[in-house]
């Protein structure tokens, strides 16, 4: 009886906490319209300076963007001579028409099966992507596969422990609509996944501490407090931006190399067998030097 009651409570909590996800291939249009709303524009206005600073700090040849927004998050495609190729991945064939209006080269594919070669991309930006995926771990694994060693990975997502997350919970009780129909991922879980995928976290930035309402005047009232909390990177911001770098060698490979180095046995090395014009022969054995008197060979 106790197990039955416990399972019943668990099912109730899962039904209220883990609602269905509006995946990107199904809700791309509604998400694109939401980012054009007053609340979405303010959110993008705080995220763009953070993303632009990383893009300018790490110039590269190939960049990959996954985002439901139409904003040029990677900057102007022809602004820098170092950027040769900028790709924007559009999940699902139903988004083919929307991809034609993008600022970058469109690529229609599934997030868990990106048709790019291994280690072929230098910079990847996942802008509100993992929380709208049914299998975020596989998506992150696929992204790290195409990311070149030494490349940069930037993940922007919604924070569960914030006013935005509280608004999401109440909105999901009423109905499943974008952008509230998502499963936010904590930065701690993402960092654990990155360690398993040979990525080193470099830093976390946070922002948007105001009320998540579609009312410009009400949001202006919270702007001074919002700016101050963003400057101190308070942990309860509406969104986070996680920056990581892919290691040249995986952590497991580095650990195996260190273990092998510690297991090596130092073998004594002999010095020269005889010096030119000398009468002594020196041998090195068991870290002790022995002198052996040698007589000249008689003719």
Sequence-ordered SSE layout with sheet pairings:
Elements: H1 2-17, H2 24-35, H3 38-57, E1 62-66, E2 85-90, H4 96-99, E3 105-108, E4 121-127, H5 136-146, E5 147-158, H6 163-174, H7 187-196, E6 199-207, H8 216-221, H9 223-231, E7 239-246, H10 251-263, E8 280-285, E9 288-293
Parallel strand pairs: 1-2, 1-4, 2-3, 4-5
Antiparallel strand pairs: 5-7, 6-7, 8-9
Sequence stretches where pLDDT stays below 50 over 5 or more residues: 263-293
Largest sheet: 7 strands, mixed
For the record, the CATH architecture of the largest domain stands as 3-Layer(aba) Sandwich
Top-tier CATH class of the largest domain: Alpha Beta
Rg estimate, integer Å? 29 Å
Q: Termini distance?
A: 104 Å
CATH superfamily of the largest domain: Vaccinia Virus protein VP39
| Element string (H = helix, E = strand) | HHHEEHEEHEHHEHHEHEE
| C-alpha geometry | globular
State mean pLDDT (0 to 100 scale): 76
What structural category do the secondary elements indicate?
alpha/beta
Into which percentage range does the β-strand content fall?
A: 15-25%
Number of helices: 10
What is the strand arrangement across the widest sheet? 3-2-1-4-5-7-6
CATH topology label of the largest domain: Rossmann fold
Fraction of residues in helices? Answer: 25-40%
Q: Supply the number of structural domains.
A: 2
Q: Got a strand count?
A: 9
């Amino acid at each position: 009886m106790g197990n039955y009651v416990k399972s019943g409570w668990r099912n109730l909590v899962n039904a209220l906490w883990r609602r269905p996800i509006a995946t990107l291939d199904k809700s791309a249009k509604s998400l694109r319209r939401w980012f054009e709303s007053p609340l979405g524009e303010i959110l993008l206005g705080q995220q763009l300076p953070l993303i632009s600073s990383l893009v300018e700090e790490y110039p590269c040849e190939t960049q990959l963007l996954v985002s439901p927004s139409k904003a040029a998050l990677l900057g102007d495609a022809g602004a820098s001579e170092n950027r040769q190729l900028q790709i924007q991945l559009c999940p699902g064939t139903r988004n083919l028409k929307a991809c034609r209006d993008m600022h970058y080269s469109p690529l229609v594919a599934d997030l868990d099966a990106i048709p790019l070669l291994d280690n072929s991309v230098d910079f990847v930006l996942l802008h509100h992507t993992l929380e709208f995926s049914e299998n975020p771990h596989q998506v992150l694994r696929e992204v790290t596969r195409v990311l070149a060693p030494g490349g940069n990975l930037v993940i922007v997502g919604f924070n569960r422990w914030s006013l935005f997350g509280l608004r999401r919970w109440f909105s999901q009780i009423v109905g499943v609509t974008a952008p509230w129909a998502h499963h936010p991922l904590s930065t701690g879980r993402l960092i654990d996944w990155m360690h398993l995928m040979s990525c080193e976290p470099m830093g976390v930035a946070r922002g948007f501490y105001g009320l998540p309402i579609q009312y410009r005047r009400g949001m202006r009232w919270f702007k001074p407090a919002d700016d101050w909390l963003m400057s101190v990177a308070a942990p309860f911001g509406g969104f986070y931006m996680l920056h990581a770098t892919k290691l040249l060698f995986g952590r497991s490979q580095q650990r195996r190399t260190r273990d092998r180095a510690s297991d090596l046995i130092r073998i004594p090395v002999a010095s020269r067998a005889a010096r030119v014009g000398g009468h002594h022969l020196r041998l090195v054995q068991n870290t002790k030097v022995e002198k052996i008197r040698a007589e000249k060979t008689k003719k």
